[in-house]
Amino acid sequence: MIVNRNYFYSLLLLLSFSFSDLIAQVPEHAKPATTNINQNGCPCIFQDNRVLFTVNAPEATKVQLDLGQLYDMSKNDKGVWSVITNPQVPGFHYYSLVIDGYKFADPASESFYGTGRMASAIDIPEDGVDFYNIKDVPHGDIRSQVYFSKTTGTWRNINIYTPPGYDKNPNKDYPVLYIQHGGGEDERGWAVQGKTNFILDNLIAEGKATPMIVAIPNGNATKPGVNARGYNDEAMAVFKEELFENIIPFVENNYRVKSNAANRAISGLSMGGGQSFFTGLRNTDVFDYVGVFSTGLFGGIREQASFNAEAVIPGILTNPKSFNDNLKLFYISVGEQDNRIDPTKKMVETFKNKGLHVEFASFPGDHEWQVWRKSLHDFAQRLFK
Amino acid sequence: MIVNRNYFYSLLLLLSFSFSDLIAQVPEHAKPATTNINQNGCPCIFQDNRVLFTVNAPEATKVQLDLGQLYDMSKNDKGVWSVITNPQVPGFHYYSLVIDGYKFADPASESFYGTGRMASAIDIPEDGVDFYNIKDVPHGDIRSQVYFSKTTGTWRNINIYTPPGYDKNPNKDYPVLYIQHGGGEDERGWAVQGKTNFILDNLIAEGKATPMIVAIPNGNATKPGVNARGYNDEAMAVFKEELFENIIPFVENNYRVKSNAANRAISGLSMGGGQSFFTGLRNTDVFDYVGVFSTGLFGGIREQASFNAEAVIPGILTNPKSFNDNLKLFYISVGEQDNRIDPTKKMVETFKNKGLHVEFASFPGDHEWQVWRKSLHDFAQRLFK
């Protein structure tokens, strides 16, 4: 069977003006999710945060929804499969459709680079929480750029948030936060899922954050011939090299930045939290601010009870004063439903007992973006003051 | 069945350091496509441009590949489905996987907003064609911004290409090209699929294009209560209002631009070519340059033999001098395998016979991005000189 491409595009030309015909029926008291695309009515969210998902797949024999919990969908006489989920907690949840056991992204939703592929997600609004919404305040940009990495030997993408007024104040220099995504994500994580620009725009408009640049790189750097695994020395050396020899010089050569430790922060989530822990604490001459969000380093996954902070960061338990003197902020956060919370709290307690200054925060939620948006919102207010 | 999210992320944390384990076997003489993500080996392209696609779906009973032509895939004893396609023409092709008749994006490839959803695509390199590759030349930015549209009543995204040196020359003003995507696409089309930034970076480095800003808006504007369909008066009025009352003021208020007709161009592809035809030719006091790429307006789809240029653009056939005097360039292009080519050539012939100045170009290819990349590459060299 040959499908004529022109016919396909002709159809699109027509459809582009009549997409409303395609909108799935949205039940009363439900609203289309903001993560839907192309005016799709569903997924749609009920007032109690149950969500209706629909899939028009008349020929399929088994369709499921994987939203952390796996739901079987049922088919109506028009071949449309649907399910109404349990009430969802607020925030951003990756999900998949599953046909015959094969997982893929839902064409009705926006896709995001996460879980190692372009994945669907649904963003459930949280009552009274609007710090990451677009508001009528001055807006910064997210600038997509490329740089050549001498470490990886490739051109790489980086996103850079510049605060409102950056272009209109050409003599003003800014501090920089270097922020890292999690495993299976890339430089799009903080720029898209994380809503870094709107969080910073709103904080700056309220006078709660110092106007800053946020560099949002791709932390998945590899170096030919180097066996970098997990947080081993090779992996941390490659990450540091990519950051110190490529990313920071790129940012400092191309943006008007204040180039000293007092004006540099490093933070990240999950895998990026671990990278920030190692790279920040091992280089307190480079960064005065270190933020570690939801890392599994301290335990909670794979029974990492063996983590020895002193072994990887010499002096952190035996000479905390050198860290207290050289850091303005060491910040750790985690979700309250994340199984990393107990070991994280225990680690924080150990640090505090040894006299290390550490600020700890927890937020409702699992190992998900809502916690990381809140972590950034909290952390950013404490920087460069 | 409950899938624990933490387990999922723990797995990712591990995987993020060992993705090489996941790479599908790439046959000798084949190379992974540049559109693959996450170090996936396939889709992979043989030297003769046949492509191997693989899908690991052991439980599925029927898997197909829709690459314009529909291919049945076959399953091996490990549950991996595969197919080797016919040789593909160079360029960017949207494609889908199909299981049980349901089409969706391939998790092995990058997804792009096109065909009204996040769609997979494969980019087949063209021998000797590198004008859209990343090269070691000064690079501009793609800036993602938001503006509030009084027309649609919503916040909307826009991408803005700024040329190399924009930040370092704060007293220099630039001309602007306003460029429109096609049906089923949005402001990501020219920024991502179109590679506008690399095309302009390379042309500027070679001294072949005047440094310019390229505004890449979302042309799918709708206005509450207005029944805009196809190219009817209401649709063209809404598009014009969005462009003239929202987008152009946003660009001119936020960027250092030369704000006169001599320094404004409008162009677009397919649906966006039609929008540019109407809006450019009806407003020659605003734009000195009009580019129409692969529009179906002149025919080739749905037997649009009824198109009457004089009726929609009064004077275009009866008073061509007023257009010749008020436009520096009226440019039309189309793909040589696009079924729009014959009616487009006929329309160009009619224009020329009436004495209207029009530049015509055709490029090998169907109704696809490779033709539009070449159209921009050609058109951009003719602007603002």
Structure description:
Two copies of one chain form a homodimer. With 385 residues, chain A is an alpha+beta fold. Chain A has two domains: 5-124, Sandwich (Immunoglobulin-like), CATH 2.60.40.10; 141-380, Alpha/Beta hydrolase fold, catalytic domain (Rossmann fold, 3-Layer(aba) Sandwich). Chain A has nine helices and 19 strands. Chain A has helices at residues 5-15, 188-193, 196-205, 233-254, 271-281, 309-312, 320-326, 341-353, 369-380; strands at residues 30-32, 44-46, 51-56, 63-67, 69-72, 74-75, 80-84, 91-99, 102-104, 111-114, 117-124, 141-149, 154-162, 176-180, 213-217, 264-269, 289-293, 329-335, 359-363. An eight-stranded mixed beta sheet of chain A has the order 12-13-15-14-16-17-18-19, with helices on both faces. In chain A, helix 3 packs parallel to helix 9. The longest helix of chain A is centred in the middle third of the chain and has 22 residues, at 233-254. Chain A is globular, with a radius of gyration of 23 Å. In chain A, 51% of the residues are buried. At the A-B interface, helix 1, strand 9 and strand 12 of A face helix 1, strand 9 and strand 12 of B.
Please provide a brief summary of the model.
By secondary structure, chain A is an alpha+beta fold. Chain A has 9 helices and 19 strands. Chain A has helices spanning 5-15, 188-193, 196-205, 233-254, 271-281, 309-312, 320-326, 341-353, 369-380, and strands at 30-32, 44-46, 51-56, 63-67, 69-72, 74-75, 80-84, 91-99, 102-104, 111-114, 117-124, 141-149, 154-162, 176-180, 213-217, 264-269, 289-293, 329-335, 359-363.
